[in-house]
């Protein structure tokens, strides 16, 4: 491909790739509110330590070294 064509297309491709990545990685639930009962369940779950697993245990189980 001709170098000048590549140089002309690069900014266009960069913009298109960035737009697609933003579209794919965007949070569809942004700006939505949680229903009160869901918020209460989340707060209760976060306050409970019975199901929490430490980062170290997860890493060891996955064979990762921290």
Provide an overview of this structure.
64% of the residues lie in helices and 0% in strands. By secondary structure, the protein is mainly α. The chain has one domain. The longest helix is centred in the N-terminal third of the chain and has 23 residues, at 3-25. The chain is elongated and about 60 Å long. The N and C termini lie far apart (45 Å).
Pick out its properties.
mainly alpha, about 0% strand, about 70 residues
Quick structural overview:
The chain has 66 residues and is an all-alpha fold.
Secondary structure layout:
Layout lengths: L2 H23 L10 H12 L7 H7 L5
Which residues sit in consecutive blocks of at least 5 with pLDDT less than 50? none
Q: Helix content range of the residues, please?
A: 55-70%
| Biggest sheet features | none
Question: Radius of gyration, Cα only, in angstroms?
Answer: 22 Å
Query: Distance between termini?
Result: 45 Å
Order of helices and strands: HHH
> For the residues shown, what is the average pLDDT?
89
Global structural class: mainly alpha
List the total number of helices: 3
